[in-house]
TrEMBL record:
Biological source species: Erpetoichthys calabaricus (Rope fish)
Primary role: Required for 40S ribosome biogenesis. Involved in nucleolar processing of pre-18S ribosomal RNA and ribosome assembly.
Gene3D superfamilies per UniProt: K Homology domain, type 1
Domain of life: Eukaryota
Gene: KRR1
Biased composition (Basic residues): 253-262
Protein name: KRR1 small subunit processome component
Amino acid sequence: MASSTTSHDVSAQDVEDKKKRKKKGDEVDESELLTVPDGWKEPPFTKEDNPRGLLEESSFATLFPKYREAYLKECWPLVQKALADHHVKADLDLIEGSMTVSTSKKTFDPYSIIKARDLIKLLARSVPFEQAMRILQDDVACDIIKIGSLVRNRESFVKRRHRLIGPKGSTLKALELLTNCYVMVQGNTVSALGPYGGLKEVRKVVVDTMKNVHPIYNIKTLMIKRELSKDPELRMQSWERFLPNFKPKNLSKRKAPKKKVVKKEYTPFPPPQPESQVDKELASGEFFLKESQKRRKKIEEIKVKQAEALSKRQEERQKAFIPPKEKPVVKKQAVAISDKIDVQAIKEKVKKAKNKKLGAPPVAEVAQKDTANGKKRKKSKL
């Protein structure tokens, strides 16, 4: 009996505690519970959190293309140095064309091997070492989007990939600024590196672009969201009224022309029964002919058709040899030369030319002209 009473008391206390918590929860503002405080940062994972290390060794390997061999050979000492801080081993096999990362006895962070795996994947996908190194930070992740299988036609795939990059990389740069991510388009994959929220937006833009949705629509939406997030009053409200709604337009589909339905006049009588082949033969008298006569008649019909077709062909061939109709030549009336040319005016020009003196004028005449011109200038000045 005592045990039953105590259990009943405990259950009653639990109910009261729950009611008190609910009241407290109602008093606390929901926005404070859902939003992360400004400047909040997760504490780093240290050796004190896992002093005994890992139980077993784990490793990851990835292949890289031939053209990346020279670059990886140069930057591999830097990769080993960066991973040594996390007590992770890194090996480069140039013969097989592979990179391998594995944990050691000193490794204390279990997630460091996942970060190292992502690092070698990014290096194999043509991401530079300076950017790939950011994956070792706690608040940075990566996403490798395979776009090769999203579009069947190779030409349309190349066009859409170029559309994602934009003229001189402007579209890709705008996407990077809005999402705070580094985006690298290489071959059949898109490698993205940055915060988790930005990676989600990058994947959406890339997949939509491959589905023939222009990236400018998604970029415009991201710009509006960025401005709305600055307003603290709109954080808990729906943003659908502010976001643009772009309707897809299919220009290839044309409207089918409407067919005019002609209404037939109603008749209570059924249509007449069509004549059979036997009825037609009986009407023409062919039914009573012998088989040999029927064959002969068919052969004659075929010969007549062939003769008609042959005559049509010959007519078409003869058209090329028919000369075109020549236009009649119109004779122009001869006009008298004396009517067009003014002989008297020409004679006067010749007389004037004879009176003109050829050659340079004498020196005395030139001097007289110069003195006369000088006097005129002086008078004008006065």
